[in-house]
Amino acid sequence: MIDAIRISGFGGRNVLSLDRIDLPAPGPGEIQLRHLAIGLNFIDIYHRKGVFAAPLSLPSGLGVEGVGEVTLIGDGVAGIAPGDRVAYVGGPPGAYATARNLPAARAITVPDGIDSATMAAMIFKGLTAEYLIHRCVAVRPGDRVLFHAAAGGVGSIACQWLKAIGAEVIGTVGSGAKADAARRNGCDHVIVTGSEDVAASVRRITGGKGVRVAYDSVGADTFAGSLDSLAPRGTLVSFGESSGPVAPLAVASLGAKGSLFLTRPSIAHYTADRAEYKAAAQRLFAAMADGTLAPPQVTTYPLADAARAQDDMENRRTQGSVVLLP
Questions:
Q1: Residue 132 resides in a domain
Q2: Which one of 87, 105, 173, 185 has the fewest beta carbons within 10 angstroms of its own beta carbon?
C-alpha cells in the first residue's frame, strides 16, 4: 500500500484527497520507484480543474514530474537497475504519491551532486525553458525577449538562460515584491503588470521596435499585450493560461499587427522522442553544472498538503519552484 493524492472529480482544491491504494508490480517496459521529491506544476492544476481532462480517467492521480529511487524493473527494461536515482517528466499522471510505476522511457538518470529536491524543482521547468528558448524559438545573442512571470518557476530558469545567451530580457511580474527576484534572474528590465501597460512599456524600452519573441504562460490577462509587444514578424509563444483561457483570435489580426507568428507548444511534443528528451536533459544538466543556471528557490510542502500547495501556486503566493516531499 502507498499514500497517493487522488481526484474523483474535477474542480477546486477540495477535490484532492489523500488515499491509501495498492501498487501492483511494474508491467513490461515499466519501472517502479520510491519518490524522493515531487515537482508541482501548473499543468497539475489544469488537470484538477478538467481543463486538460482528456488524458485522465477518473478516479485519477495527479502530477507528471518527480525524482525517485528505482525499486523494481519490469520485463524488457534495460539500462536501469534497482537503486538508480532517476528523474522524469511526463507519462501518466501519478507523481503525487510515495511510490509509483512509470514507463522506463521517461526515466532520466540524475547526475551525482544534484540533490533530489533541486532536481524535482528543475526537471520539468528546466526542460520547459530548454525547449522554449532553444528549440521552439531559438533565441540569438542580441534578441529582445519578453518573458511573463519572470519570478516564477519556469521564468526563473528561462531568464537566467536567456541572459547567458546574450538576449536583452524584459520580464514581467505580478507585484513589486517580485521585481528584485526577476532582476536576479537576469532581467534587464522589469514591468509590474497591473500597474504598468505592458505593451506601452515594451515599446518605450525598445525605442518603439518591439521584441522578437514573447513567452506568455499567463494567458487571458496578458495575451493581447504580448501580441502588441512584438516587432514585425515576431513570435508569441503561448504556453500556459494561469489567468484563464485566451479568447478566440481573428487570424487576420496577425497580419495586421506585423505578419506575426503564434504557437501553442506542449512539452509533451518536445520530449516525445527519447533521444531528443535525453539530449534536452543533458543540456539542462550541463547548464546547471557550469553555473549558467543557479539553484532555484525551492518551497517545500508535505505531500499531504498538496491542496494548500496548489492553492498557493494558483494564487501567485509562491516564488521559484514548489516541491512536495513524500
A1: no
A2: 105
> Identity (one letter) of the amino acid at 23?
L
Domain boundary among 248, 264, 280: 264
pLDDT of the residue at 57: 82
DSSP 89-144: E-SSS--SBSEEEEEGGGEEEPPTT--HHHHHHHHHHHHHHHIIIIIIS---TT-E
Rounded distance between C-alpha atoms, residue 110 and residue 119, angstroms = 8
Do residues 106 and 153 share a domain? Answer: no
Residues 6+ positions from 70 with CB-CB distance below 8 Å: 31, 32, 33, 80, 81, 82, 83, 84, 85, 86, 107
- C-alpha 54/C-alpha 65 separation (Å) is 19
Residues 77, 95: contact at Cβ < 8 Å? no
Q: Which residues in the chain come in under a pLDDT of 70?
A: 52-55, 319-320
Whether the CB-CB separation of 122 and 249 falls below 8 Å is answered with: no
**Residue 189 and residue 191: Cα distance in Å, rounded?**
7
Q: Closest by alpha carbon to 70, among 106, 99, 34? A: 34
| Nearest of 151, 236, 161 to residue 191 by alpha carbon | 151
Segment holding 179, helix H or strand E:
helix 179-184
Q: How many other CB atoms are found less than 10 A from the CB of residue 163?
A: 17
Residues 176 and 149: their CA atoms lie apart, in Å, by 12
Nearest to 40 by CA among 28, 48, 51: 48
Start-end of H helices in 21-110: 42-49
Residue 47 lies in a domain: yes
CATH (domain of 174):
3.40.50.720
